[in-house]
């Protein structure tokens, strides 16, 4: 993978961070309610899902 591919993937991912926060909040709330997790896990889950979804969409947009 060339360095330009990595840069373009990160550029696409940064743009998608804002849009992926809402699905990440909904998914982490669903997981928290289903498995009765403590409230302190909500923020790390939201941040993790947001970054993961943004990277996945960035990779998709780069190679699609």
Quick rundown:
α1 runs antiparallel to α2 (42-63).
Q: What share of residues is helical?
A: over 70%
Distance between the terminal alpha carbons, to the nearest Å? 15 Å
Strand percentage, roughly?
under 5%
The stretches of 5 or more residues where confidence is low (pLDDT under 50) are none
Secondary-structure-based class equals: mainly alpha
Overall number of domains:
1
Q: Write down the overall geometry.
A: elongated
Quantity of strands, as a count: 0
Oligomer: single chain
Q: What is the gyration radius calculated from CA atoms?
A: 14 Å
Strand count, sense and barrel status of the largest sheet are: none
Mean pLDDT: 91
The DSSP helix count reads 2
> What is the string of helix and strand elements?
HH
Structure overview:
With 64 residues, the protein is mainly alpha-helical. The protein is built from two helices and no strands. It starts with a helix and ends with a helix.
């Amino acid at each position: 993978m060339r360095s330009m591919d990595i840069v373009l993937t990160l550029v696409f991912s940064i743009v998608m961070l804002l849009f992926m926060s809402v699905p990440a909040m909904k998914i982490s709330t669903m997981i928290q309610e289903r498995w009765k997790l403590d409230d302190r896990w909500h923020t790390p889950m939201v941040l993790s899902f947001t970054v993961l979804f943004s990277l996945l969409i960035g990779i998709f947009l780069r190679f699609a």
